[in-house]
Design goal:
The complex is a heterodimer of chains A (318) and B (496). With 318 residues, chain A is mostly helical. Chain A contains 13 helices and two strands, in the order ααααααββααααααα. In chain A, strands 1-2 form a two-stranded antiparallel sheet. In chain A, helix 1 packs parallel to helix 12. Chain A is globular and about 55 Å long. Chain A starts with 8 loop residues before the first helix and ends in a 6-residue tail after the last helix. Chain B has two domains: 235 residues, Rossmann fold; 235 residues, Rossmann fold, CATH 3.40.50.300. In chain B, the strands form five sheets. Chain B has a six-stranded mixed sheet with strand order 6-7-8-3-9-10, with helices on both faces. Chain B is built from 17 helices and 22 strands. Helix content of chain B is 34%, strand content 26%. Chain B has 496 residues and is α/β, with parallel strands linked by helices. The chains are: A mainly alpha (318), B alpha/beta (496). At the A-B interface, helix 8 and helix 9 of A face helix 10, helix 11 and strand 18 of B.
Chain lengths: 318, 496
């Protein structure tokens, strides 16, 4: 009763269904709106989704390790207001502020993972709690203000274009995604994250330190979230405590659409990124064809259900 | 006893076949109204398949079920419940956060209509519990009750549903002696009210206190039924074992004298005061009933559970084991009892499973060395004869025997001196079993030492050079090869 190794047509189709959906949407919107398939608009879509893609990679790592993090939005918020306040109010050099922001987020992530480990609780519930804590911290730092007047060097991160057309933040995104893809797919560390998420007890009995792996997954995700906060704040040119809030849901949505298992142990980065851009293209295209806000909600929901059907019909239900 | 008028349930010529296994082979047993009828047999004798046939959980391959004069070829679960058949499982399935009364009346139609009346419900539940003469408050939450009381709640539930046949599966496995008394009283009351109780237990002693008759199953076959006053514990054991060892076990060179592992007064994880030595190239068997603490002991030696006191010495050196990683560093590898949930990553490829515990040693320039990884997997595929066309195949697509070989490969990849085989052939067909036995012998002859936990008596006697028997977490005895008999092992394991 040994299954053959070849993938069936259905499995290949499920693998490629998101890219096909993405291409179909691009073709559809190109017909519907003249301004969709222009270099300005495509660059726009890329630039607007840089921080979403990096965050989704963070969400993916956590989900593969068997966890879930609802506090990512407020982690971003804390990092964004901290970095921008340091620079605009205290004139801290850009490099130091950026490093502080990233370091802070890695600490917040580690805190999430460590609390889940020590409280022996579900990470979703733990991060529901820490989300509130981070929200409070963010507003304490920001004093409900918005921080403008950021140094030019900082704004360059989000707005400078190499050769006049290639956005720096897109380059940063690509570099980060390549690193994440490499670590998760090619190194023993990545392998262990999959093992710990797939079957924690088997992983423990195989000699892996499952607790450590899970906490470190949160740490690494925190680093990505911190970078993501800087990418967003530097593109927007300002930050307040609302910066990044709610992004965890976009990230989780992208992960689930791409087939990252809720129980852990499964997920592929490129599919997650394609899913991010499915959502990004959809939002952009609907704006361009002047679909009203409410029909947009409906269309988004329908597209999500369709892509769930396409990606998961060969997989087991949840 | 007997007679057509009082017979309530009768199974006739029941067989149940699974691919490669006959779980039940032409078994016929009938049950009288108002009797407590015990069902005994070794692990794997077919007791649970038999009760599942009665409860409708499985459909027999052939045979008939007669219940109150009507004949059925199989029962549906809902039908069995409606007919008045109730099962109290060993692992109680209850609503832990709900009250006793809510549990008793769950799924029972009440007269009060749509709105639940808590007071009324609790008053009625109190009435039912009062019949049993026990002090459980109907308002208590299930999760605050002892296991014995939770079982009494299940019995009360069966009464409310007007059950005529109640099956109790190992009710005393997890309760204390004083609780046991309370439970027995309830069983007596049920019997007095005309209910038939089918009682499954490994503890032979208690059968003599509460049962009227006892039926014995062995290897899926019916042996006999006895009135309890006409039999003895020893006779029951003989009936349960009742077969000669077949010679399917390969011969093995005797072990060397060198001691590789010695365990002194080891206590923790539910076992206490364990002492033994393991020699180089030896296969040391561990016998005991379910829950005797064999797996728990193995976890202590592997570092998967913390010890409370005592020593574990590897080649004379004491090692502190605080995680499986430490155990592996000390040269121990574990092949866990539950292949799917502890042994392997079932949704991952074969090579992935084989390399996972040594993945840190398979890296080059920070990357997993795919070539070395595949070579390792290929090596074990050849050595253990894992039948698969591709190492990239998912483990879930393999047969049980080949899955087990993947798990063994993973354990061997860490180059252990001591291998723990916990139920090495559970759920594996005969042919693959023999391959696993040959492999174990080969490993032992190469100088690896093996601790083997098994509930398969034949396998235990056939493979082991010595057997240590555990009983309720303590060492009940040690038997050397010339002392081996199934009767002796079973007697020690039952605490006789």
């Amino acid at each position: 009763m040994e299954k053959a190794n070849k993938k069936s047509f259905g499995e290949i189709f499920a693998d490629l269904s998101l890219p096909i959906l993405l291409i179909a949407m691009v073709i559809f919107f190109s017909f519907m709106s003249k301004s969709f398939l222009t270099s300005i608009n495509i660059t726009n879509i890329l630039v607007q989704n840089v921080h979403v893609a990096v965050c989704s990679a963070a969400v993916m790592i956590i989900m593969i390790s068997g966890g879930c993090d609802l506090s990512i939005g407020y982690q971003m918020s804390v990092a964004a207001v901290l970095v921008t306040k340091m620079m605009s109010v205290y004139n801290v050099p850009v490099v130091i502020a950026v490093i502080c922001g990233i370091a802070l987020c890695s600490l917040l992530g580690t805190f999430n993972g460590y609390m889940a480990l020590k409280l022996k609780s579900n990470t979703m519930i733990v991060t529901l709690g820490t989300m509130a804590i981070f929200q409070g911290i963010s507003y304490l730092i920001s004093e409900s203000k918005t921080y403008h007047n950021l140094p030019r060097a900082f704004m360059y991160i989000g707005q400078w274009r190499m050769f006049g057309w290639l956005p720096l933040n897109v380059i940063i995104m690509i570099v980060l995604l390549v690193i994440v893809g490499f670590v998760m797919g090619k190194t023993s560390a990545g392998r262990k994250v999959y093992a710990a998420g797939d079957n924690p007890e088997a992983a423990r009995l195989a000699g892996l330190n499952v607790g450590k792996i899970k906490v470190l997954s949160f740490t690494v995700a925190g680093v990505l979230v911190g970078i993501s906060a800087i990418l967003l704040a530097s593109r927007a040119g300002s930050a307040d405590s609302g910066t990044g809030v709610g992004i965890e849901f976009t990230g989780i949505t992208a992960c689930v659409l791409s087939g990252v298992a809720l129980k852990g142990g499964e997920g592929t980065l490129w599919k997650v990124i394609v899913a991010v851009f499915v959502l990004g293209v959809l939002a952009n295209g609907m704006q361009l064809i002047n679909l009203g806000t409410y029909p947009q909600y409906i269309a988004k929901g329908v597209i999500m259900l369709v892509s769930l059907y396409l990606t998961n019909r060969n997989a087991q239900g949840i | 006893m007997g007679g057509v008028l009082t017979e309530i349930l009768s199974l006739k010529n029941i067989s149940k076949e699974y691919p490669g296994v006959k779980a039940l082979d032409n078994v016929s047993i009938s049950f009288e109204k108002g009797e407590v009828h015990a069902l005994v047999g070794e692990n794997g004798a077919g007791k649970s398949t038999f009760i599942k046939t009665i409860s409708g959980a499985i459909r027999p391959t052939s045979g008939t079920i007669e219940y109150e004069g009507k004949t059925y070829s199989y029962l549906q679960p809902a039908q069995a419940i409606d007919m008045g058949i109730a099962v109290v499982y060993q692992e109680l399935i209850q609503f832990e956060a709900m009250s006793v009364a809510d549990n008793i009346y769950m799924g029972v139609k009440e007269e009060s209509g749509l709105v639940l009346n808590d007071k009324e419900r609790q008053r009625k539940a109190a009435g039912v519990l009062a019949e049993f003469d026990c002090h459980i408050s109907p308002a208590d939450l299930i999760r605050n009750l002892s296991i014995a009381n939770r079982q009494i709640v299940e019995l009360a539930k069966a009464m409310v549903k007007k059950a005529k046949v109640i099956i109790m599966d190992e009710p005393t496995a997890a309760i204390t002696v004083s609780e046991q008394e309370k439970l027995f009283e309830v069983v007596h009351k049920l019997k007095a009210s005309g209910v038939t109780v089918i009682y499954i237990s490994h503890r032979l002693d208690e059968l003599f206190r509460i049962c009227d008759r006892v039926s014995i199953l062995r290897d899926g076959q019916y042996v006999t039924t006895k009135d309890i006053q006409d039999t003895s514990k020893q006779e029951l054991i003989n009936f349960m074992v009742g077969r000669e060892l077949s010679s399917t076990y390969p011969d093995k060179k005797p072990a060397a004298a060198e001691v590789v592992l010695s365990v002194k007064n080891l206590t923790g994880n539910g076992v206490r005061d364990i002492n033994f030595e393991l020699h180089k190239g030896e296969i040391l068997g561990f016998a005991g009933l379910v829950g005797a603490g064999r797996t728990e002991l193995m976890h202590l030696i592997f570092g998967a559970a913390p010890r409370e006191s005592g020593q574990i010495l590897f080649k004379g050196q004491e090692k502190k084991l605080s995680s499986p990683k430490d155990g592996m560093a000390a040269g121990v590898a574990l092949i866990p009892e539950d292949r799917k949930f502890q042994g392997c990553f079932i949704d991952k490829p074969i090579y992935w499973n084989i390399s996972i515990s040594t993945i840190d040693h398979l890296t080059k320039n920070g990357m997993v060395d795919r070539k070395a990884e595949m070579e390792l997997a290929e090596d074990y595929r050849k050595r253990l004869k894992i039948k698969t066309p591709f190492l990239t195949q998912l483990t879930s697509g393999l047969s049980g025997g080949n899955q087990q070989k993947v798990v063994i490969s993973k354990a061997l990849a860490s180059l252990p001196d001591i291998l723990i085989f916990d139920e090495p052939t559970r759920g594996i067909d005969i042919g693959a079993r023999h391959e696993i036995y040959l492999l174990m012998n080969e490993l032992a002859e190469q100088g690896k030492s093996i601790l083997m936990v098994s509930s398969d008596m034949e396998e235990l006697l056939g493979m082991s050079e010595r057997i240590i028997v555990l009983h309720e977490g303590a060492q009940a005895g040690e038997l050397s090869k010339d002392e081996f008999t199934q009767e002796k092992v079973l007697a020690l394991a039952s605490g006789l």
